[in-house]
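Need tokens for this chain, all 238 residues.
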Amino acid sequence: MIRVAVCDDMRTELEEVAQIIRQYGTQHPEQEITVQSFSSPYALLGAVENGQFHDIYILDIVMPQISGIELGHYIRSHNNACAIIFCTITPEYALESYCVQAQNYLVKPIRKDALIQSLEQALQRIKHDHAKGISIHTPGGQSFIPFYQIVYLELSNRRILFHQTSGEIIQSLLLRGSFEAALADLLTEPRFLHPHKSFVVNMEHIAKQQSGSLVMDTGARVPISVRKRSAVAQQYFS
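Here are the structure tokens for all 238 residues:
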């Protein structure tokens, strides 16, 4: 399922964008698109704070008290794997939109074809990302976990614990070899960082780095070993 959030303080324009996306979803049921509308940036902020994440965010920029750019920064700090599309009345914020890795920047009045094209680009990127993952042997059988759903991995009692964005933890069978050997393929993915001998994190879910630890967007803290601090900082900030 693809979850889309639309935020605009102008209700007419909010409903126009949401309706275009709903119609697209009806015409393409295989995409399983759901749309949620937010008429206030604070309502969307509250949803993000409560752990309610979306795959695609379509945001107005010129809104009272908090701009769409500020909102985009906040969303990115909690959900780096999502796509963000800006829809606004002026092109003057286009350069700033790159700071939050915007998928696209559309100027109102919104053209239906331009919005659908941006939506399809975002869907293609998400589909590609969702196809990447790791197969693991668990006590219940073999499981496939998409990379984007992994917040961090933890070695505990010779089992790997996969901490996911949903809060669910999937446990592997007992390891016969090393932690690094079991995760050799996963560690070739640029998004993953190995800050400690017993932990691997998905950098897309790092909220911030603090002295001696990484704070994930779920609130979990992952330690950084002393000998790896310099390398971790270099890899994370690059």
